[in-house]
Amino acid sequence: MSDDLVVVARVARTRGLRGEVIADLLTDFPERFDDLETLIAVAPDGGQRSLQIEEHWFQGRRIVFKFTGYDSIEAAKEFAGFELAVPASDRVELAEDQFYEWELKGCRVESIDGEFIGSVSAVMRTGGVEVLVVENDSGREFLIPMAQEICISVDVEKKLIRIDPPPGLLEL
């Protein structure tokens, strides 16, 4: 996936007889689809194409799309497993101290003294404070809470997070 795209849904399967597809939502902002006219379909092999949204509606925690020109189950079948994305420039702007998961992944994590801790491999949602999964060069994992008193600075442009870990956090 290129850095200039943000994935907002993943097609699970076809639905109905008119070429609709049902997709898992991968965005915290489902209202974004209300004014959206096109999506970029990204195939598992990385190929991309632009799709015109004819209509969409929500079905539980999923979204159903009908794309212009895909009017049968057979035509829509090829989209199973595709990711649906928007240009990064169209992402919803977050508050200053909030970040997208994709912005944090790959960030270098250092202590306030400049000691390399590792790189962010994932972000765990715990229902409270998100937790950074940080992996060092030898494969050891650290779980670092995204609390302001621990994550002192986050610079997604420089892909750098500076932390002030409490005693014992990095020994767990």
List the helices and strands and how they pair.
Elements: E1 5-15, E2 20-25, E3 38-42, E4 48-59, E5 62-67, H1 73-77, E6 83-87, H2 101-104, E7 108-111, E8 116-124, E9 131-135, E10 141-145, E11 151-155, E12 160-163
Defining traits:
single chain, 172 residues, mainly beta, six-stranded antiparallel barrel, six-stranded mixed beta sheet, elongated
Question: What would you say this structure looks like, in words?
Answer:
- The structure is a single chain.
- This protein is mostly beta strands and 172 residues long.
- It contains 2 helices and 12 strands, in the order βββββαβαββββββ.
- The strands form 2 sheets. A 6-stranded antiparallel beta barrel has the order 1-2-5-4-3-6. Strands 10-9-8-7-12-11 form a 6-stranded mixed β-sheet, with no helix packed on it.
- A hairpin with a 6-residue loop joins strand 8 (116-124) and strand 9.
- It is elongated.
- The two termini are 33 Å apart.
Summarize the structure.
This protein has helices at about 75, 100-105; strands at about 5-15, 20-25, 40, 50-60, 60-65, 85, 110, 115-125, 130-135, 140-145, 150-155, 160-165. It is mainly beta and about 170 residues long.
Helical segment count: 2
Structural class per helix/strand content?
mainly beta
General shape: elongated
Rg of Cα set: 19 Å
Strand content: 35-45%
Largest sheet: 6 strands, antiparallel, barrel
Order of helices and strands: EEEEEHEHEEEEEE
Mean pLDDT: 88
Give the N-terminus to C-terminus distance in angstroms. Answer: 33 Å
